[in-house]
Amino acid sequence: MILGRKVRLFPSEEQEKALWRSAGTARFVYNWTLARQEENYNNGNKFISDNELRKEITQMKKEEEYRWLSEVSNNVAKQAVKDACDAYKRYFKKVSEKPKFKSRKRSKPSFYNDNMKIKFRESSVLLEKVGWVSIKKNQIPLGKKYRNPRVSYDGKYWYVAVGVEMEKPELELTGESLGIDVGIKDLAVCSSGKVYKNINKSKGMRKKEKKLRRLQRQVSRKYEMNKSGGKFVKTSNIVKLEKQIKLVHREISNIRSNYLHQTTSEIVKTKPSRVVMETLNIRGMMSNRHLAKAIGKQGLYEFRRQMKYKCEFNGIEFVEVDTWYPSSKTCSECGNVKTRLSLSERTYICDECNCVIDRDYNASINLSRYGLAA
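Request: output the structure for the sequence above.
Response:
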């Protein structure tokens, strides 16, 4: 099974300039490809293949205006064209939304490195037209076949990410069927009784979000103070504040991502024979303006994705239950199904056997039993 590995780079000053050149070239070629496809589509012509666009890029490099494209690896531009074409194909298939142009200020700087040319040592990695860049020791398995290497910048550090073929471990599973009910009040409630709290309600995260709001208000006031007619003037103090805001956003995002990985790994390490979760309609849930922000912070889709691939890697059966399965409305004691159950009712009280149980724990028990009777 292919698993991702991501490590921080420690480039020299010259190497960092080369990384920025590659990221800038990838962004330019991606935007150029989208513009060509959009113009071609508006004229009523057929979709341009990425092979044809790559030939056009090769001809552009011969012109004086675009000679700088040759300063970086040829594979950076090739993959940027392919990424943009794939984005348009997904849009035509109605799998994703229409691709957008990458902004120099807002988009994440990243580029592709050829998987046949990337090489790893214990404490360094060879990147095309960049050289051997230092990394932490023994972070990437050596002598493996690497898939889809990508170099990216998160606002503070450079990273390289690769897919590595890993052998599945042989685990002795417990035979337990574990039901997991996810939500907003708590991230996950397991049928084993374990509850994983919502990290966004913790004191530390509330302090981070308060700091973010304060910085955003500061920068908003400075924009208003330095307004010149109908234009906003960006001063050096505004630039400093915006950099701080980016770093706080990065910190909050990393804390949430780390918590999801810790939670999913801890659940898998209990070695159940199968894990049962509901199929969540995240897009529909996000359309509720009262819940959208809380659902976005919780990362429920990412939680399900991580659980799925970690179960698959460890040989655990992963079962997804239909969205309309009444896990919350069904009594885990007698099986009676309530006709109505509002979101405000956090305790489940059965009308038949008078069972009183936490709503989410009740749902997780019902999920754990899904399909077993049949």
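The mean pLDDT is 92.
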